[in-house]
Amino acid sequence: MLNRVILIGRLTRDPELRYTPSGVAVTQFTIAVDRPFTSQGGEREADFIPVVTWRQLAETCANYLRKGRLTAVEGRIQVRNYENNEGKRVYVTEVIADNVRFLESNREGGSGGGQREENPFGGSSAGGNSNRSSNFSRSNQDPFSDDGKPIDISDDDLPF
User: Fold this and answer.
1) How many domains does one find in the chain?
2) Which helix (H) or strand (E) element contains residue 18?
3) The model's pTM
4) pLDDT tens-place string over residues 51-102
């Protein structure tokens, strides 16, 4: 069985950081994910999906993510339930994220906070050089790219 989800969307509000009674960090935020079609009025609709992060990832999200920021979230879907004040059973579906990435810098969009030189998620950096591997050539990034030189290999070297 597989329970895996990858979402790309914009934060609808700043992440909310809290701590459990035992001191574990937990962050909640919602991302708006566009649907692949438009409504009858020509408007593109979106789904608003709640996301929860735990521990170090929760603290990192609270420090770096801001409303409007384009973000990728990877995790699993979890359904939990509880009884509300009226005694009615309430079901909550949310994504428990284990990986979150920035998909743009502060200068590219969103309403992010101050400029930061480091992006803890490994995506674009929010300040300074937006490509961490800029000192590598394109061929170093893609080991299968064609560099234009013939490959010297005999049939005996092939494993098949």
Assistant:
1) 1
2) strand 16-19
3) 0.64
4) 999 999 999 999 999 999 999 999 999 999 999 999 999 999 999 999 999 8
CA atoms within 13 A on the CB side of 45: 6
Q: Please check whether residue 87 is in contact with residue 47, taking contact to mean a CB–CB distance below 8 angstroms.
A: no
How many angstroms separate the CA atoms of 34 and 90, rounded?
26
Query: Which CATH number belongs to the domain containing residue 39 in this structure?
Result: 2.40.50.140
For residue 27, give its domain range: 5-157
Tell me if 15 sits within 8 A of 62, measured CB to CB. yes
- Residue located via tokens 């708006």: 32
Count of beta carbons in the 10 Å neighbourhood of residue 106: 20
What are the CA-CA distances from residue 100 to residues 26, 37, 42, 158 (Å)?
A: 14, 25, 31, 40
